[in-house]
Design goal:
Blueprint lengths: L3 H4 L1 E8 L7 E2 L3 E2 L3 E12 L11 E9 L8 E11 L5 E2 L8 E5 L1 E2 L6 E4 L2 E4 L14 E2 L2 H12 L11 E7 L2 E6 L10 E3 L4 E15 L9 E8 L6 E9 L22
Length: 265
């Protein structure tokens, strides 16, 4: 079996810890000698109090050009995709999230929200508010509400599937809920917030690819363009080209190690 680094030419396409609402276009990759290019895109849409009314999505598209600097660039109309939230302050089933973020803004009984996932559902209105937050309310104590929720969620006494899903603190009032074992889950998480509790999703992974035969005549260079719809969010994209005749000289890989057999004994 060929080494992965010999069968694919791997390059960073986009790496931005901040992101942008204006489209960022990667370098143009030369498809001469390659029959396919795949882009893997990953980001996370962490909510804040200010984003409760926004629909956060990554928008991606592939572009083709006749030159390495983007000369004659045109969009490939069918090579487009979006990922992230499809509804404001909500993570729907269509968003395909296996982890979500909850941003508490106050400690108050009006901070309602719900979560549903694999054999589990949680609705803050269906249980005594004292188990999650102070019913009297107190602004500026969002981190206390987050800590109370984590304790409740991770308790097998309150959540029979606490060993399947887990809640953990990200920063102060921000909480992440995700599975212990991603491969063991058969459904995705969904969540709905309120004006006092905002929802977001992390670990968004997208894929766009095209075979060189479908590029327009005279355009052998391909790039990816990425932006977020409402507020900047971090993003990284990797380009992987498959050579017509391998192996390739893969200068983009700093180190590679492949196990021929199990080393777990």
């Amino acid at each position: 079996m060929k080494e992965f680094q010999e069968s694919k030419k791997i390059d960073f396409a986009v790496f931005d810890t901040t992101g942008s609402t204006a489209e960022q276009v990667s370098p143009y990759f030369d498809m001469l000698g390659y029959d396919r290019i795949d882009f893997l895109v990953q980001g996370k849409l962490v909510p804040t109090a200010a984003l409760s009314t926004l629909v956060q999505q990554y928008s991606m598209r592939l572009l083709q050009a006749s030159g390495a600097t983007g000369a004659g660039s045109t969009a490939i109309s069918s090579a487009t995709a979006v990922m992230g939230r499809s509804v404001k302050n909500c993570v729907s089933l269509a968003d395909k999230a296996n982890e979500i973020y909850i941003q508490f803004t106050t400690l108050a009984s009006g901070a309602t929200f719900s979560i549903a996932g694999y054999q589990y559902s949680f609705d803050s209105m269906a249980i005594p508010t004292s188990r999650v937050m102070d019913s009297t309310g107190a602004t500026g104590q969002a981190s206390v509400a987050a800590e109370a929720f984590i304790t409740n969620f991770n308790s097998t006494a309150n959540n029979p599937l606490a060993t399947v899903w887990k809640a953990s603190s990200v920063a102060s009032a921000l909480v992440k809920v995700g599975p212990y074992n991603v491969d063991a889950q058969s459904t995705y998480l969904t969540a709905t917030g309120s004006t006092l509790v905002n929802m977001g999703m992390g670990n968004c992974i997208g894929h766009l690819a095209i075979d060189s035969q479908f590029l327009s005549d005279g355009k052998r260079y391909v790039a990816i363009g990425i932006k977020t719809t409402d507020a900047a969010a971090p993003i990284v994209a990797v380009a992987m080209r498959q050579p017509i005749n391998g192996p390739v000289n893969n200068l983009a890989v700093s180190v590679s190690k492949s196990m021929a057999g199990s080393t777990g004994k």
